[in-house]
Amino acid sequence: MRAQIIGVLVFSVGCAMASAGYADERRRLAWLYEIKFGVLHHDTNGLWSGFRRERSVDFNLEAIFTPHVKFIGGTIRPAFGGSVNTAGDTSKLYAGLRWQYEHTSGIFFGMGLGGAIHDGKLNLERYDRKALGSRALFHIPIEIGYRLGARSSLSVYFDHISNASLADPNEGMDTLGGRFGYRF
């Protein structure tokens, strides 16, 4: 599954890079609103999940799509992404809806809800791997950032995955890091 996650992420980056320099390509990718890339601390201790078993960092890539609905001063858009762990621990693909509010000062805040699939452990087999209980999990992201210009942004990103106690065990996992965004 790790190879498929990497393949999806590389394909997404390739599409974004190919369209960044050409106006005709941007028109063909009108369905793509923004792409975000980041480096995240994997299985961060002391957050929602409470403790850490896994180590290293994740490379994260996310696509946010153009269709939207205005809601409570912000905008809801579909998102698809993934995180690949650099040490071979749990990696994931996720999809969901993202609400984002942008202030005229350039500061923005976003949060979402969706689902994720992962290649980690379901049960406690090793003490250096999280026991996530189910292959399909809930995905909850939160992001705060600053828009550097019309097209680019920097942000702090947090996400949580768990099965919401619908399966046993439910150790959950949190990541925290920084991301760069590019709008088309």
What this model shows, in words?
- The chain is mainly beta and 184 residues long.
- It has one domain (2-183): Porin.
- Helices cover 14% and strands 49% of the residues.
- It has 2 helices and 9 strands.
- Strands 1-2-4-5-6-7-8-9 form an 8-stranded antiparallel beta barrel.
- The longest helix is centred in the N-terminal third of the chain and has 19 residues, at 2-20.
- The radius of gyration is 16 Å and the shape is elongated.
- The relative contact order is 0.21.
- Mean pLDDT is 88; it is low at 17-23.
List keywords for this structure.
single chain, mainly beta, Porin, 9 strands, 14% helix, 49% strand
What is this structure's SSE topology?
Layout: H1 2-20, H2 23-28, E1 32-41, E2 57-65, E3 69-71, E4 74-85, E5 92-102, E6 107-118, E7 136-147, E8 152-162, E9 173-183
Antiparallel strand pairs: 1-2, 1-9, 2-4, 3-4, 4-5, 5-6, 6-7, 7-8, 8-9
Task: Give me a quick take on this structure.
It contains two helices and nine strands.
Order of helices and strands: HHEEEEEEEEE
The biggest sheet, with number of strands, parallel, antiparallel or mixed sense and barrel status, is:
8 strands, antiparallel, barrel
Label the structural class. Answer: mainly beta
At CATH level 3, the topology is: Porin
What is the count of β-strands?
9
CATH class: Mainly Beta
CATH architecture: Beta Barrel
Domain unit count: 1
Distance between the termini: 30 Å
Instruction: Note the beta-strand portion.
Output: over 45%
Please, what is the average pLDDT?
Answer: 88
The percent of residues in helical segments reads 10-25%
Query: Globular, elongated, flat, extended or rod-shaped: what is the shape?
Result: elongated
